[in-house]
Amino acid sequence: MPPRSNPSERQRRLGLELRKLRNDAGLSGDRAGALLDADRTRISNIEAGRIDVSRNRLYKLLREYGCPDGAYFDGLMEMAQGRGTGWWDEFRDIVPRSALDLAELEARCSSIRMHEPLFIPGMFQTEDYAYAVTKATGKDRDRIDRYVEFRMARQQVLTAPGAVPYHAVVHEAALRVHTGGPTTMRKQLLRLIELARLPNVTLQIFPFEQGAYAAFSRPFILFGGPSRELETAYLEHPLHSVFLGDRERNAEYGKMFERLAGLAHAPVDPESAPESHDGRDSLSLIQHVMYEL
């Protein structure tokens, strides 16, 4: 199999973990290659994510590297089994590699925590809202329609059997920016409440009254993995989004998220009646913004 110039995040992450394990074991690339009846160039390509590694070969490497049995070992083996295929493949012609990787992570992670300072999260967007956001990028109509279709398809992870926990902290600014106009925003806020009542969804609104906070500067998503070592942070940027596999940095983002959640309004409670709210929780704030519309 020829090396790929644009590896997926799954391939890249598996390669990084294998490189770390090999270095920790004190083994050379030549020694690792010998285990696979290959040269060190093949090992370099695997560790760079340029080519896949079969489960049998991965098993040999993990045993030689001294990787203990457990969630981390099983998670690495699952990465080789997945091979990155899924419904997102049909959008390879229209969305960037980072968006495909994002959809794959959403479909295969164990939990999702995200902070969004300016827009309604993609997972919660209506078609009209998603269209308005995408239209602002200047893409042509056909490309916009495909982007919106892709975004709607991503939302299946919220309601699929065995849907993972999804915890979002959204800044009040996202509720008040009239993306697409008042009618679009009213429908969007109604949709936000509807999805927030799903048993696996926790939605909190971070109010203006809490003042400034460093995390406002950019959105981020934390994906839970089969083990703490395989958690991933996603930093969104219009030109170059970044996936982080660094454990210390991911832990810092986890702490940042917990601080945000601690300062935000109480989450939307799917069990409570609207009249029971005291005006200082997330549902009441969303309803207040809707009333103003």
Which keywords apply here?
13 helices, 6 strands, six-stranded mixed beta sheet, 293 residues, alpha/beta, 48% helix, elongated
What would you note in describing this structure?
With 293 residues, the chain is an alpha/beta fold. 48% of the residues lie in helices and 10% in strands. Strands 3-2-1-4-5-6 form a six-stranded mixed beta sheet, with helices on both faces. Helix 7 (127-135) packs across helix 8 (141-154) and helix 11 (182-196) packs antiparallel against helix 13 (282-292).
Radius of gyration: 21 Å
Distance between the first and last residues' Cα? 56 Å
Spatial strand order of the main sheet: 3-2-1-4-5-6
Helix- and strand-based class?
A: alpha/beta
Approximate shape = elongated
Tally of helical segments: 13
Summarize the structure.
The protein is of the alpha/beta class. Helices cover 48% and strands 10% of the residues.
Topology:
Elements lengths: L8 H17 L3 H7 L4 H8 L7 H10 L6 H12 L14 H12 L2 E6 L10 H9 L5 H14 L1 H4 L6 E6 H5 L5 H15 L4 E6 L13 E5 L7 E4 L6 E3 L2 H17 L18 H11 L1
Parallel strand pairs: 1-2, 2-3
Antiparallel strand pairs: 1-4, 4-5, 5-6
